[in-house]
Design brief:
mainly alpha, 14 helices, globular
Length: about 290
């Protein structure tokens, strides 16, 4: 393994070093906590950001040591997590604020996510143009919610309130959109141009192709059969991983820009540093920041 790291730095030292710059030239975690105190903890994207340091550090190790397939799978988690955390949180908080005048805590949001996952197939009925299928989906969602809430230790009055709230949240068809649709709709919401949206779709496709059973994996194995058994430096996979890691980082920055307005100035400083010192632009984040200004 040490030999692979040595070979990576020997052949692609500049690119390898740039991965560490992702963490060195980034928003200090203490800044988010200082600006938002306990508020960050009750957001999905805030928790993802806190995990970023550990998650990215591990991915860097995987890329440098030749664990390319594992790195791509872990990048998919962060890429998908960034998009879904912002998307789900928007629709969860929107409905809670309408009914309660406040935003939900992390416990409530976690329960909603658990229910979304279990209702994935049922929820697809909400996307139908057939009104009968939509009504049926809403009835089944309410049944699932009622069963979930009735198993809790809440009072009868609290149970009724939570059944209504959870049912209204979970009957939003947007919670059952595909990741592809979320990408397209998010691009439209933040005025990203067609090329930027296509970049996001391509990143998602690339990361998914190495996560699912696909020809991409076997095509690589046909080219380098030894990678089935040992870790070894591979220029094609290394450069793919580095490129996708920077693009995933760009998406994470964009999500932070949307959800945490107080760190937008710091994000502009991060973008400026990368452009001035590494001639690298984070176009998704830049586009989102401009749309929010």
């Amino acid at each position: 393994m040490d030999e692979v790291v040595y070979e990576t730095f020997k052949r692609e030292g500049e690119l390898a070093t740039s991965l560490f710059e992702l963490l060195s030239n980034w928003i200090d975690l203490s800044n988010l906590i200082k600006e938002y105190k306990d508020e960050w903890y009750h957001t999905l994207s805030g928790n993802l950001f806190v995990y970023l340091w550990r998650g990215y550090g591990w991915i860097i190790y995987e890329v440098l040591s030749g664990h390319y397939f594992e790195a791509l799978k872990d990048m998919r988690f962060l890429f998908e997590g960034a998009l879904l955390s912002l998307h789900f949180e928007h629709f969860i908080d929107k409905k809670i604020y309408e009914k309660c005048g406040s935003f939900g805590g992390i416990g409530l949001k976690t329960e909603i996510l658990e229910l979304v996952e279990s209702l994935r197939e049922v929820g697809k009925g909400l996307l139908s143009e057939d009104t009968n299928k939509v009504r049926k989906a809403k009835r089944n969602i309410r049944k699932k919610v009622k069963k979930f809430i009735e198993n809790s230790s809440l009072s009868d009055e609290e149970k009724r309130e939570y059944i209504e709230l959870y049912s209204e949240i979970l009957c939003q068809p947007e919670l059952y959109w595909s990741v592809g649709k979320i990408i397209r709709e998010s691009g439209r919401a933040f005025n990203l141009d067609k090329r930027q949206v296509e970049v996001l779709e391509k990143v998602w496709s690339e990361l998914s192709s190495f996560t699912h059973f696909s020809s991409k994996f076997f095509g690589t194995i046909l080219r380098r059969p030894e990678l089935l058994l040992v870790n070894d430096f591979d220029e094609v996979l290394f450069k793919k991983c580095v490129n996708l890691q920077f693009l995933t980082f760009d998406v994470l920055c964009a999500v932070l820009a949307v959800h945490f307005p107080k760190v937008r100035v710091k994000l502009w400083n991060v973008l400026r540093w990368w452009e001035e010192n590494a001639n690298r632009r984070f176009e998704i984040t830049e586009g989102v920041l401009k749309s929010l200004s």
